[in-house]
């Protein structure tokens, strides 16, 4: 097939040696990708190195960021929040993913739909739902106050706890999906063999399923971390005014301080943090996969 | 022992599904709650808030959302189809690298893309594009990688021998 193609479409005299035909459909999407993605990103990264006196390449803005305790606290808070969410998501998603990978009951479809459908509802709506539940006058506190178990509302929102709960909910479907693919790849015969040889359910999970699904665990941790590090709506709504993470700080710099270079610095730092995590994660995954095949 | 484990497993599954469904159910509950503040009182309910939707104050943003979604769906679908056609169907030279470039916006956080796009539109004389055209363009960048990936996924599996005479 390929040989036929090359002979019939041999370059003819007067024609360009490189055929542009196959690239033509790429022109409109590339145009928008360059104009609305590549150029803005370049501008932004460039701006983060721009000095206040018009220098083109200086680290002044970065120095400004790293010498400000509040901003540094925001950076650490972003990392802490994303790390917590990554662990919560993976732990909660694992049983669901295992059930979806192995169950043959008719309920499987229902569970799958329930687990994935929230993704269609949008982040703001779900976060608003959590606000209704966790607020000082929200569902949990109303019930507890009414029952007399507590005298003052518990601090469930406007803090790290509320944000972690909300973000865990937002990211959970992605964790489930990445673990599901990984667990589905494990040969069910391994479990059957272990069972026949007398292994208990617990040791099958501990010694077969968990080790073999490590790549899935890593990709779930990774996707949860990166999604939470860049989340804006959930920390802004559930965290309250004092809860600053990089994403909300970027917005604040643009809208209230009109400090574009600082916003650019924060955006670049967020990007570096995410790419760094992604790189570390893929490397760890590749190394583990090598080990598992030996 | 195994029975206890299986029971625990079922219980945890049930709790997790409840956790997933809870906030969405609560939003429904809040939408029929008579008080304007966020509150929880199942004894009273009303549909008054839905009637308020007809107010211009709420109707205009609602219509803008729908217009934006429709425009972005059509444009992103077209652009994504073209890109996927070149990459997955024609398998143009270097199609793997081109695919990686097409989905690269996914690696950049939304807030970062947003700031970068606003920076472009507000700095270099593209002022007129701020507003709906800018929103449409920005959303195309957000959705294009998904569209390309999905259409390309389907096109990779095409049996091209069906097209030979």
What is the approximate shape of chain A? globular
* Main sheet properties of chain B: none
Number of helices of chain B: 6
**Most extensive interface, chain pair and sizes:** A-B, 66 and 65 residues
Coarse structural class of chain B: mainly alpha
Radius of gyration of chain B: 24 Å
Mean pLDDT score of chain B, rounded?
Answer: 83
Note poorly predicted spans of chain B: none
- Intertermini distance of chain B: 65 Å
Describe the overall structure.
The complex is a heterodimer of chains A (294) and B (165). Chain A is mostly helical. Chain A has 14 helices and no strands. Chain A has helices at 2-8, 27-48, 60-66, 69-102, 107-116, 123-134, 139-147, 160-184, 188-196, 201-212, 214-229, 233-239, 246-257, 260-293. The longest helix of chain A has 34 residues, at 69-102. Chain B is mostly helical and 165 residues long. Chain B contains six helices and no strands. In chain B, α3 (56-89) packs antiparallel against α4 (95-102) and α3 runs parallel beside α6. The longest helix of chain B has 34 residues, at 56-89. At the A-B interface, α2, α4, α5, α6 and α7 of A face α1, α3, α4, α5 and α6 of B.
Write out key terms for the chains shown:
heterodimer; A: 294 residues; mainly alpha; MetI-like fold; disordered N terminus; B: 165 residues
Task: Summarize, please.
The complex is a heterodimer of chains A (294) and B (165). Chain A has helices spanning 2-8, 27-48, 60-66, 69-102, 107-116, 123-134, 139-147, 160-184, 188-196, 201-212, 214-229, 233-239, 246-257, 260-293.
Secondary-structure blueprint:
The complex is a heterodimer of chains A (294) and B (165).
Chain A (H helix, E strand, L loop, with lengths): L1 H7 L18 H22 L11 H7 L2 H34 L4 H10 L6 H12 L4 H9 L12 H25 L3 H9 L4 H12 L1 H16 L3 H7 L6 H12 L2 H34 L1
Chain B lengths: L1 H30 L16 H5 L3 H34 L5 H8 L7 H14 L8 H25 L9
